[in-house]
Amino acid sequence: EEIEEKIQEFIDTLPKYQREIFMLRESSILRWKEISEKVGIHKSTCKSIYSRLNARIRCFLKKYRDEYYS
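The chain above was modelled as a monomer; its predicted structure follows.
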């Protein structure tokens, strides 16, 4: 449960459009085209933002894991 709180804290720090893209992709069955229309950003840009966010979240989780378990 603590890790979920940490992830949510991290997501809350994101700019609104990035948070929207991330949440729409993670919590719905929308396709990239539909997500891009909702946020008003080109589909390929949405994919790129999502990919970078996933990489940042992985780094965040690794850092958290390293601090928590060391």
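Residues 44 and 65 are 31 Å apart (CA to CA).
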